Amino acid sequence: MSANMFVAHGGGPTPVINSSLQGAVEEARKHGAIKKIFGARFGAEGILNNDLMDLTGTPAGVIAKLGQTPASALGSCRRKLAADDYPKVLECFRKNDIRWFFYNGGNDSMDTCNQISLLAQKSGFELNVIGIPKTIDNDLAETDHSPGYGSAARYAAISALELAMDAASLPIHVVTMEAMGRNAGWITAACGLFQKAMPCEFMVCLPEHLHDRKTLLGQIEAAWKKKRGVLVAVSEGIKDEKGTPYGDTGIKDGFGHIIAGGAAQAVTDLIIGELNIKSRSEKPGLLGRVSMACVSEVDRKEAYDAGAFAVKNAAEGKTGFMVAITAERSPRYISKMTLVPLEKVANVEQKFPDKWLKGPGLGFTEDFAAYCRPLVDLPMPEYAYLGN
Questions:
Q1: 14, 148 contact by CB (below 8 A)
Q2: Catalytic pick from 84, 85, 97, 137?
Q3: pTM for the complete prediction?
Q4: Which of 158, 171, 234 is nearest to 197 (CA)?
Q5: Does the pLDDT at position 107 exceed 70?
Q6: What span, in angstroms and rounded, lies between the C-alpha atoms of 222 and 210?
Q7: Rounded Cα distance, 8 and 74, in Å
Q8: Angle at 180 (CA atoms; ends 178, 183), nearest 5 degrees
Q9: Cα(first)–Cα(last) distance of the chain, in Å?
Q10: Beta strands in the chain (DSSP E)
Q11: Phi-psi region for residue 186, left (φ > 0), alpha (ψ -120 to 50) or beta?
Q12: What is the pLDDT of residues 158-190, one digit of tens each?
């Protein structure tokens, strides 16, 4: 079969999503059966609107720069396809002679990928579909971790350590730091990756658990009284004892998820209003997923390999899978790519495991550090602390 391939991005970008695109394009150029390489402008929107970007003749030097480029070079979207959208997808594929399709995204995107694969089979349309994993949230199932997480975790870990140094140097206030992660606390957990090196008190609030306002304020006040400074890392999606988000925008995204935001500021307002303690909120926000200065080289390489592995296997006739990562961490870190059925990952969230959490607000076990450190790509910066 000689035909064309199509790549699309779904959901929020990561620092290494373009590395996967680079891997996919460079691998595709090794296969003579792949005539043209198309990218969808703005994800599913581009597919439905037949808005294609022809990458076939893009110079190799430009493709090579994708691994150094932030955000999504193709553009992305948060469009959840409706039932009557899927026939339009196949119509686009037929019109452009697409026989290989790759969707780079998270669990919602893997559901879209799965639905397209099933419809193609049902319609008798020969189409090889493979999902390329992507999410800074690290909440994809059936994979050790997701491309994008290592870099986001590195950014969070470094930022938290630097904020801890600042909090300790002027220990008159509480610093609250908000990390992305609507329902899964993997990035927030990374804020405590180097908690042993922090010269101030450190607390953490993950979205997997409810956080009673009275209890949380009591913990913060007790920590502040130690006069070492306090850093509180909170997930954007944390909820109180009633299940009410601390930061609730009241807005839903294209997938129907509530857009959380302002959790750190909400906690800061409580600290000031209820405890009469100075407090500042910090929200790196999009910087945590767009910063190329903090990219993990391990993450970048794995993202590239995931894109290349997807194309290689689709070219060999495999379909209905997502690329997954398996990893060994002892005696040294080694990872490899494999395939898992799309139906096992579609709309499934991998939450942060309780076994790695010491307790509400108390930080993490060494097992989490052992899991996360290879992904953020050590060595990390080392700072002097004089014990003041």
A1: yes
A2: 137
A3: 0.95
A4: 158
A5: yes
A6: 20
A7: 7
A8: 115
A9: 70
A10: 3-9, 34-40, 52-54, 98-105, 128-133, 173-179, 201-205, 230-235, 248-252, 258-260, 278-282, 321-328, 334-341
A11: alpha
A12: 999 999 999 999 998 899 999 999 899 999 999
pLDDT score recorded for residue 250: 67
What is the model's pLDDT at position 258? Answer: 66
Asked if residue 388 has pLDDT above 60, the reply is no
Tokens of 37: 């390489």
- Whether residue 364 contacts residue 357, with contact meaning beta carbons closer than 8 Å, is answered with yes
Per-residue pLDDT reduced to its tens digit, 287-313: 989 999 999 999 999 999 999 999 999
Catalytic site includes residue 97: no
Determine contact, residues 16/295, Cβ cutoff 8 Å: yes
Spatial distance between the Cα atoms of 213 and 194, rounded to a whole number of angstroms: 26
Highest-scoring range by mean pLDDT, 24-38, 234-248, 352-366:
24-38
Residue with tokens 């910090």: 282
pLDDT (mean) for 104-115? 95
Cβ-based neighbours of 265, under 8 Å, separated by 6 or more: 176, 178, 247, 281, 283
Spell out the alpha helix ranges (H) of 225-262: none
| Section 121-133 average pLDDT | 97
Q: Which of 218, 269, 210, 271 is nearest to 244 (CA)?
A: 210
Confidence label for 211 from pLDDT (cuts 50, 70 and 90): very high
Tell me phi and psi for residue 101, to 5 degrees. -130, 135
Nearest to 21 by CA among 83, 89, 103, 127: 103
d(CA 337, CA 323): 7
Nearest CA to 58 out of 87, 21, 96, 86 is that of 21
> Distance between CA atoms of 139 and 76, rounded to whole angstroms?
19
Rounded Cα–Cα distance for residues 361 and 370 (Å):
20
Taking a C-beta distance cutoff of 8 angstroms, is the pair 99, 311 a contact?
no
